[in-house]
Amino acid sequence: MPPSLGPIPVSEIHSLIEVLGEAPQVSYAPPSIYPMSAPVFDPAGEADRSAPPNGPIGIYAHAPFCNYKCTFCFYATRPVPAEAEMARYVDALDRELSWIRPDTELTQLYVGGGTPTVLPTELLDRLLSAIFGRTTSGREVHTVECSPESITEAHVGVLRTHGIERVSMGVQTGSEGIRETINRRHDNRQVLEACDLLVGSGLVVNVDLIYGLPGQTEADFQSDLELVASRGVHSVTCYNLRVNEATPIGRLVTREGRLDAVDLVRWRELTRRVAQNCGFQQTRWHTYQRVDCETAADAARRFRDVTGWGNQFSVGVSARSRLNDTVFRNHKKYDAYLNHVEAGRSPVEETKALDAFERRLRFVTLTLGEGRALERASYEREFGTSFDDDFGAPLTRLTEAGVVRDEGPDVNLTDRGRLVYDLATRAFYPESVLQWMQERQDLVGTTVNLRPRAS
Ligand SMILES: C[S@@+](CC[C@H](N)C(=O)[O-])C[C@H]1O[C@@H](n2cnc3c(N)ncnc32)[C@H](O)[C@@H]1O
Ligand code: SF4
User: Fold this and answer.
1) Ligand 1-lining residues (CB < 6 angstroms)
2) Residue-wise pLDDT tens digits, 232-271
3) Which of 234, 270, 308, 455 could connect to 217 by a Cys-Cys bridge, CB 3.0–4.6 Å?
């Protein structure tokens, strides 16, 4: 278990900010997931089609429907339509999946959204049948996302039938007032019943919580974590609120109201402390896993993040595939996506080919961002160049700031560095990308200040 850090003095956090820069106020993905953190794409030509190449692939399937629209959420979602419309959408997913070569090895499946469990059970069953009908699968842990008010025993039955081992359920907050602000439409009774149903059925259960929500206190967040931990869930993923301008929260929360680096470090220290007190240990920067639980440990060992390594084939509206170092993003507009697929045309709207430098950048940020040691020898084997020649300057800066520990054969984030893992990985970005991100940041408007309160 990583040692528990006491609160870092504010003056020290300010010294860190001098080196790392402020926390981004406009968010896409965290900087450890390049290029999604700075998504500048090129329009796709008609010929672009994300048919996956030979060899193993991870699959992401996007189910966009939700019972409500949370005000912070910037994922491609839409209200639940009539069943016939959902069936039409699942047909489109099925059609995209039919481009996979039969018996392709599946390295990891993640069905996300939206909320996949708002699909009627027959449609969820059809989607999973389409995926497993084209692929072969070993001991990988496959995941389906769900929400407290949509998951039912019948859905659990479908998941078990297809060998899905893990679910990830959004809870975000247990505070009634905050839940209203963010337009979540379930209560804590439903959260607890859903936890009991999922844990009781033998699934590995992750719960998502968010800190830094408008009006949220540290005490609020502490009781949220304690609430779900008490129900035997296997892991808790604690996200800081990421504010995106395209969301209602983005239009409401001022620049001053967003989490700065001092807030981030404080919340993360708190999260780590509370999680440890509840019997959880940190496995990735925002994920805490139950200790003394072989099911949780086994799942964590076998779980691979589909956004990470290897080829990833993604189906659905706005879904992003990554195949042979090119990212393909499907049409963002629901109708355009369906029309393209139904006409047998490529659903890809934009692409981004990663150049040699960007491939190295991705390797470095993913490795450190996932909490793993960056081995100089692996880097050299992979790219034929030296890590120090490519990234010597940011490495020196981060080492001197105590964020990174250079141990000769490999480089690691320090315990302190882990609290600012996203800011630390951003230090490896080239000037042109940082400038693009800064330009987005400069667009932030100002309206009402809803800064989260420290208790
Ligand atoms: C696509 S949602 C799936 C879960 C399910 N739809 C639900 O909300 O119950 C995945 C997770 O992303 C996180 N998330 C979405 N938008 C976020 C944001 N702006 N900032 C931080 N986390 C966010 C939430 O914790 C959410 O549970
Ligand atoms: S957080 Fe989940 S339920 Fe809320 S809008 Fe996003 S995908 Fe839908």
Assistant:
1) 66, 72-75, 112-113, 115, 145, 147, 170, 172, 208, 210, 239, 241-242
2) 999 999 999 988 777 888 877 777 778 888 888 999 999 9
3) 455
